[in-house]
Amino acid sequence: MSSELVSLLWFHVTSMSPLSHAQLGIALGFLIPPVLVPSVEDVEELAYHISIMFFMTAGVATALFILVVIVFKEKPPYPPSRAQALIQSRPTEEYSYVQSILRLLRNANFVLLMITYGLNTGCFYSLSTLLNRMVIYHYPREEVNAGRIGLTIVLSGMAGALISGLWLDRTKTYKQTTLMVYVMSLVGMIVYTFTLNLGHLWVVFVTAGVLGFFMTGYLPLGFEFAAELTYPESEGTSSGLLNVSAQIFGIAFTISQGQIIDHFGTKAGNLFLCFFLLLGSIMTAFIKADLRRQQANVENEHTKVVPEACTVPIVLEESKL
Predict the structure, then answer these.
(1) Which residue of 130, 167, 239, 262 shows the fewest CB atoms closer than 10 Å?
(2) Greatest pairwise CA separation for the chain in angstroms
(3) Distance between the two ends of the chain, CA-based, in angstroms?
(4) What is the pLDDT of residues 185-206, one digit of tens each?
C-alpha cells in the first residue's frame, strides 16, 4: 500500500504539467518512488522516506520556478500559430476569454471531442494511478517491476505520440487517425485486461507497452484535432478545456475503478474502463472532420497564387509594346 500511495501522489502532481513534460514526469514517477520509498510496515519510517521524496520534489519545483521568473518572457517575438497571429492583431479589448470559451462550447464537434478526450485520458489516468495495486494483486512483492511496467507504458506512449504526430503531419487525416488510435486503445485495454492474471510478468510488460503506445499516443492527436475544429480560437483555450475534461474524468474513473477493484477484482475494474473506451470510440466516429485550420491554409495559399497569375497578362502586354 505504501508504494501505491506514493505513486498516486506523484502521478497527480506530475500529470498537471504540459503534455510532453508531463509524460517525462509520469515516467520518473513510476520509476523513482518505488526506489526511494521501500515497502515497510513501520509508519514512521515510511513517513520519513516519503518526506525525503517530497523535499526533493519541492527542491526541483523551486528551481524551475526561479528559472521561469528569470528566463521566461511574456510572449514570443513572433506568433507561434496563425490563430495567435489573428488574436494579437486585434485590439486587446476586443478579445474575451469568456466569450471564446462560450463559442467553443457551442461547437458541437469540439464538445464531442472534449468528452471523448476526457474518457480516453481519464482511463489512462485511472490505469496509471491504480497500476501498482493491480500488479501487486497478481504478482506480490513486485513493487519495483510495477514501476517499471508504468515506465514502459509511458515510454512506449512517447514513441506512439511521435509516430502518430509524424503520420498526422504527412497525411492530415485527423479524424481517421484519431479514431484508429482510439479503437486500438480499446483493443489494447481488452488484451491487457485478460492477460494480467496469466502469471507471466513479461506478458504484462508487453501488453502494457502496446496499451501505452496507443493510449498515450492519443493525447497529442486530441490537441491537434481540437486546434483544427476550433480555428481561429486560441489553441490554449481549447487545450485547457481538454485538460479540464481529462482531470474530471480521471478523478471520477480513479475513484470508481478503485471501488470496483476492492469489491469485484481487477478484471471487473479494467472492464469498467473498456466500456468507456468503447463509448468514446463510438462518439469519436460521430465527430465531423471540419478542418478549419487546413481550410484557412488552403485559402491563404490560393490568395498568394491568384495575384501572381494576374500579373502574367500585364507582363506580356508590356513586352509587345
Answers:
(1) 262
(2) 98
(3) 90
(4) 999 999 999 999 888 899 999 9
